[in-house]
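Bump. Still looking for DUF2239 family protein structure tokens.
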Amino acid sequence: MNTLTHWTAFQDHQQFASGDPWDVAIAVSDALQQQPGQNIYIFDDQTGRMVDIDLTISPFALMAQLQTQYAVNETTAPETLRGAGRPKLGVVAREVTLLPRHWEWLATQPSGASATLRKLVEQARKQDQATVIVRQAQEATDRFMNAMLGNAPGYEAAARALYAGQKEDFLHYTEQWPTDLRNYVQRLAEPAFGAIKVESEQ
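Sorry for the wait, here they are.
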């Protein structure tokens, strides 16, 4: 199984199952076979998207569907071929087109052109990473809220606070929502605000 993928299922307003996609899918499938017609919805924790799968088929067919549609099976990348003298980082050689002044500047760098370019790329990635994480958390949270809480009191205000980065307002507007849905929303939103403390409900 792909350990990077995590799903959560809700039965109406209560959390029904959470964990590996296969475990969640089987739990929901069994529940629907025992009591058809239940309102159980599955969401991808990373994207906030509702998972669309056929839960009426056999376990073998279900696994095939998960592998084909959501790639939840274990996959390993082939071993990277490395030439002599290459660092063990899976370095890939590709053409880079630069202006003459760029090449002139790279030629003056003590670490060489390749190492300097790698360093510049890593610096840019780190600078962009925080922005990307915030945006992805905002989008995932809003998708789930729209699907499960679109008619809930305070939804629009909570969405505005989410995109404005106003953590205290977001927590205020979501406070009165059903416990499991509220806690899940706040967990999805954590990267958008920093750490949001979600109180455990006993």
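The beta strands are 7-11, 14-19, 40-44.

Edit: fixed formatting.
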